[in-house]
Amino acid sequence: MTPVADPGAGTTPTRSPSTRELQALDSAHFIHPFTDHGDLATRGARVIERGEGIHVWDSEGHRLLDAMSGLWCVNAGYGRRELADAAHAQMMKLPFYNSFFQTTNEPAVQLAAKLASLAPTVDGRGFQHVFFSSSGSESNDTNVRMVRRYWDLMGQPQRKVIISRLNAYHGSTLAGASLGGMSEMHAQGDLPIPHIAHIGQPYTWEHARPGESEDHFGLRSARWLEEKILAIGPDKVAAFIAEPVQGAGGVIIPPATYWPEIQRIVNKYGILLISDEVICAFGRVGHWFACERFGYQPDLITFAKAVTSGYVPLGGVMVGDRVAQVLIERGGEFNHGYTYSGHPVACAVALANIALMEREQLPQRVKTDTGPYLAERYRELADHPLVGAAESCGLMAGLVLVKSKQRGDDGRMPMFPAELAVGMKCRAHCFANGLIMRAVGDRMIIAPPLTVTRADIDELIRLIRLVLDLTLAELKDLGHWPG
Ligand code: PXG
């Protein structure tokens, strides 16, 4: 570890701080996202020190298989020298210049053109333009402003409502958290802001009726959008926003019938469609942009995270021709932008990252090799006594921990009581056994780097089976099994 200044001993670098010292400094000064700091202070934060390939190491020397790609972003894996080289070269040439006041810079221009070439085109309609930000949240704020501006310019300023879904995650700014459908987020700070409405999510496990087919449920849940549009008044609805597969909500994969029906409905009422692909783009589900996989054509696509494989912050909005044409031809100045819109270093890293992904054919590999292989191996986990369902899409996957596989009178497998926090118990076994997996309630989810090999997937499945066994043993010890 690089020597840092000893706290309280002046500014001269002296020695490497111990894990305990870092934890104490962390507790004293660092407010973390989505964290209970009282709780964190009692246990001390885990200090992650370095990464290589699909692994990270903590400050105590433990190696962890990072099956979450950092936070759904390190798609190219850790330790990729060419990304660091691209940042270094660009920093030495031009570390920053803004793109306000009729100026631009080469990496931003090249990246915009590259992204336009990768975006899907259907019936001659595609994405020739990009707006840059530094995160997914900023990008979704941009979407709200852009959608409102579009409808103003179209002479329909009454179209203000953006419809989203419960359990969606669209970021943490006021607009992002409002668009999102997380009730714990809405409970803090008087959210959502006005003109946002929510419908249910297409989560078959939770919301399909007993005996209802996937296809039928897909159509029924898509029609919740039509019902909401009619309830609000079609002339007041501006847009619908959704993740192709809900990520933070627990890797909720919609039935195949869902997205085509959503497309039919937005077309019928002329409302804009925003595909929030902050997690799903850049190869995660086997395509550069996930809407291609699910067969729909959005007007705006939110991206961030894996555009740089998380090496530096960058986000943005792919602006479809329908919206771009109106903004450019009729809009004059759009009074919106960030200091770091089109940051040259972030854009240079993104270009190097996309070149790397093209060279290693990562989206293609996910589509034809590692994605299908993960699906096959992941499904096997459903034979574990704790697993009610195990499903995947590309390289994102979720499994449900259940109390019993015996279906109750309601036709469903019973779940553990929330207070038992079985998902968190399982997550603790993951960390203790060299695996990073996320728990969303009692859904355990993964999204490993796209560089994983079949052998890595075998190792991942072995570790997951191990932590499931350990979780089961703990539940038995606690007297909660059989449920
Ligand atoms: N949209 C989607 C679909 C996301 O997943 C954002 C927007 C916001 O991006 P920024 O860059 O502003 O964080 C995200 C972010 C989790 C988790 O617990 C997921 C995200 C962020 C933090 C935690 O799975 N996704």
Description:
There is one protein chain. The protein folds into 2 domains: 150 residues, Aspartate Aminotransferase, domain 1; 274 residues, 3-Layer(aba) Sandwich (Aspartate Aminotransferase, domain 2). The chain is 40% helix and 15% strand. It contains 17 helices and 17 strands. The site of 3-[O-phosphonopyridoxyl]--amino-benzoic acid (PXG) has 17 residues, from helix 6.
Helix/strand layout:
Layout: E1 4-5, E2 13-15, H1 19-29, H2 37-43, E3 48-52, E4 55-58, E5 63-66, H3 69-72, H4 81-93, H5 106-118, E6 129-133, H6 136-153, E7 161-165, H7 174-179, H8 183-186, E8 196-199, H9 204-207, H10 214-232, E9 237-242, H11 258-269, E10 272-276, H12 291-294, E11 300-303, E12 315-319, H13 321-330, H14 344-359, H15 362-380, E13 387-393, E14 396-401, H16 422-432, E15 435-436, E16 438-440, E17 443-446, H17 454-477
Helix pairs in contact: 4-14, 5-14, 6-13, 10-11, 15-17, 16-17
The protein binds 3-[O-phosphonopyridoxyl]--amino-benzoic acid (PXG).
3-[O-phosphonopyridoxyl]--amino-benzoic acid binds next to helix 6.
Can you tell me the CATH class of the largest domain?
Answer: Alpha Beta
Termini separation comes to 47 Å
**Going by CATH, what is the homologous superfamily of the largest domain?**
Type I PLP-dependent aspartate aminotransferase-like (Major domain)
Strand content is: 15-25%
Number of alpha- plus pi-helical segments:
17
Low-confidence spans: pLDDT under 50, at least 5 residues?
A: 5-10
